[in-house]
Design brief:
Helix content: 10-25%
Structural class: mainly alpha
């Protein structure tokens, strides 16, 4: 980066005298290149196994427990 953005106390104390329309160094920002790609190459290890539901979504015993009023 070309400039040190650590401005110091004078910069902070004078910030109330700066217009909100001032670029404040934002025109010096730039986007760096990618460090890695986000491409996905599906292979055997990244593919999901076929899903088969082995239990019902809501088991009947849940409703039995909910209707049970015996608290002792």
């Amino acid at each position: 980066m070309a400039d040190n953005l650590n401005q110091g106390a004078a910069y902070i104390m004078g910030s109330d005298k700066v217009s909100v329309n001032d670029a404040q160094g934002s025109d010096k920002l730039y986007r760096e290149g990618l460090e890695f790609t986000t491409d996905v190459n599906p292979d055997v290890l990244t593919q999901d196994m076929p899903k088969k539901q082995t239990k019902p979504t809501v088991e009947a015993s849940l409703f039995t427990m909910a209707d049970d009023r015996n608290y002792f």
